[in-house]
Amino acid sequence: MSTGAVPPGAHERDRTTLVIASSNRAKLIEFKELLRGLPFQVVGVSDVLSEPPVVNETEETFQGNAAKKATTVAEATMMLTLADDSGLEVDALGGRPGVRSARFAHERATDAENNAALLTALGEVETDQRRGRFRCVLALVDPFARPGSPPFFTEGTCEGSIATGPRGSAGFGYDPLFIVGGSGKTMAELSDAEKNAISHRAIAARAMHPILTKLHEDRRNDALRIVAR
Fold this sequence. Notes:
It is a single chain. The chain is of the alpha/beta class. It has a single domain (17-228), classed as Maf protein, CATH 3.90.950. It contains six helices and six strands. It has a six-stranded mixed sheet. The longest helix is centred in the last third of the chain and has 29 residues, at 200-228. The protein is elongated.
C-alpha cells in the first residue's frame, strides 16, 4: 500500500523512469552516474512520493533486503524500481557488520558512530588480519511483470582491508576506513571516477546494464505491437 501521494499519471505504465529505492542523496547521485547512458530517467523515491514507504531491513541477507525494498517501492510507485543492499564484511569479525552495516553502532547510528564502533570491535587486531570487502546486491522489480515473477539480481564485491583510522573526505559510510585492495588508498581518498570504476556498487550496476537495456527494448516492442493492432 502506498504511503504517499503518487504524481498524476504514475499509475500508467511508465516506460522511461527508473526509481532508486533510497532517500540517501549521495547514493542517488552515485547511481545516476553509474547508470548514465541507459534509456531511463533515474530518480529517487522522494522525487515521486511525498511520503516514501518505510522499509524495515529485517532480512538476513543482502539479497533479501534488496528485494524487500525494491518490491515495496515498486508497489507504491507502480514504476520500475532498483534497490540495493550493501555493506561491509570483515573476516576477523566473522563477516560482521554485514547486513547490519548501517546499524552497527545502534539502530539510528550515524556514519561516524558506525566507523567508531568498527574500530573498537577490531581493537588490537593486527594489520594483516583486517581483511574485508564491500558487498552490494541490486534488485530490480517491474510492477507490471507477470504475477510471481522474481526480481532481477546482480552482485558486486570490492576486496580490501580496514584501516586503523579514517582517511579521506569523499564518499560515505565506511569509505574512510576501507583500504581498496592493491591501491593503498581508502575509498574516501579516491576520486568519484576512481571509485565508480572499482566499487562494489559499480560492479553490480554494470552487471545490471544489459538487464535494464533488454527490459527497455521489450517494453518498447510491446508498445509497438499495441500500436500496430
